[in-house]
């Protein structure tokens, strides 16, 4: 799996590094021999890079493990060692750019977090509503109150004017409410 990821990054790197052919409207003339040489060189580089990527990962894995101390700076380490491991550096750059989440999933759906602002969630409102309803129903089922909750939901649904909202809730419950 690691080799596949490395090869994917290497192909992206090679694709970006390939010279682009001049457009039709330009006056540059490229003879067939020069174009063929460029093509052959691209193939040779691709074959060499495939083996060099494997070597790069093998070499990295053979390195001694660095102790995690308060002074250790992972970003600086990749900056310095990026010359030795350029493909791994690109992967690390993409992975380390992902922000960490400091909100526990329980607190996001707790009573205090029932109203989710756009800053806290990118979920569609119907998805959030379905998740919160499901959570409520599961808690009610644990407390043997599922029928009471279902009756309350039926009352609320009967008061709603939109048939689409009723169908959404019925789909979530897997239960059909009769008028």
Residue share in β-strands:
under 5%
Order of helices and strands: HHHHHHHH
Describe the global form.
Answer: elongated
Quickly give the structural class. Answer: mainly alpha
Number of helices: 8
Main sheet overview: none
Number of domains: 2
Helix content bin: 55-70%
Protein name: HAT C-terminal dimerisation domain-containing protein
GO molecular function: protein dimerization activity
Domain HAT C-terminal dimerisation: 56-138
Organism: Vicia faba (Broad bean)
Your description of this structure?
This protein is an all-alpha fold. 63% of the residues lie in helices and 0% in strands. The protein contains eight helices and no strands.
Summarize the structure.
It contains 8 helices and no strands.
Give a topology summary.
Blueprint: H1 2-17, H2 32-62, H3 74-81, H4 86-96, H5 105-108, H6 125-142, H7 146-159, H8 163-173
Helix pairs in contact: 1-2, 1-4, 3-4, 6-7
Q: Which labels suit this protein?
A:
179 residues; mainly alpha; 2 domains; 8 helices; elongated
